[in-house]
């Protein structure tokens, strides 16, 4: 896994939603891990008007960038891609939660249902 320098982080954070989604998929499949933020209560959540969402990031640096303000006690945690496929997809579906992919600092990101997210990950894995 490569470390991102600040110049790369700044450039990627300015990507639009589609570019962030594509970057996320490539990074997650290449590194075989997804990053979330956790606190003493578990995984942190974002809310849209319609959905409660688990935000996910492609790299530790982007997840940690969210550990500010009300989330300053949160820690970035990686989940292996295998564990995501085997446990998280079904768990999120059971809890009726969605996934928000690589949200930017304005809390904007592509929202997918867990089965759609899993499908996109699997599709990206097949490209490798």
Tell me briefly what this model is.
With 128 residues, the protein is α+β, with helices and mostly antiparallel strands. It has helices at residues 6-13, 17-31, 60-64, 81-94, 114-127; strands at 33-39, 42-43, 46-47, 52-56, 75-80, 98-101, 110-112.
Overview of this structure, please?
The structure is a single chain. The chain is 44% helix and 23% strand. A hairpin with a 2-residue loop joins β1 and β2. The model has no long low-confidence stretch (mean pLDDT 92). The chain has a single domain (6-127), classed as 3-Layer(aba) Sandwich (Trna Endonuclease, Chain: A, domain 1), CATH 3.40.1350.90. The radius of gyration is 14 Å and the shape is globular. With 128 residues, it is an alpha+beta fold. The protein has 5 helices and 7 strands. The strands form 2 sheets. It has a 4-stranded mixed sheet with strand order 3-4-6-7. Strands 2-1-5 form a 3-stranded antiparallel sheet. It has helices at residues 6-13, 17-31, 60-64, 81-94, 114-127, and strands at 33-39, 42-43, 46-47, 52-56, 75-80, 98-101, 110-112. The longest helix has 15 residues, at 17-31. α2 crosses α5 (114-127) and α4 (81-94) runs antiparallel to α5. The two termini are 17 Å apart.
């Amino acid at each position: 896994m490569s470390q991102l320098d600040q110049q790369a982080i700044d450039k990627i954070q300015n990507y639009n939603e589609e570019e962030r989604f594509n970057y996320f998929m490539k990074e997650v499949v290449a590194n075989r891990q997804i990053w979330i933020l956790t606190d003493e209560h578990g995984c942190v959540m974002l809310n849209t008007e319609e959905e409660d969402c688990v935000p996910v990031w492609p790299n530790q640096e982007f997840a940690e960038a969210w550990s500010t303000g009300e989330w300053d006690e949160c820690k970035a945690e990686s989940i292996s891609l295998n564990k995501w496929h085997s446990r998280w997809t079904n768990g999120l579906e059971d809890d009726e939660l969605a996934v928000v992919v690589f949200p930017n600092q304005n809390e904007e990101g592509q929202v997918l249902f867990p089965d759609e997210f899993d499908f996109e990950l699997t599709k990206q894995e097949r490209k490798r």
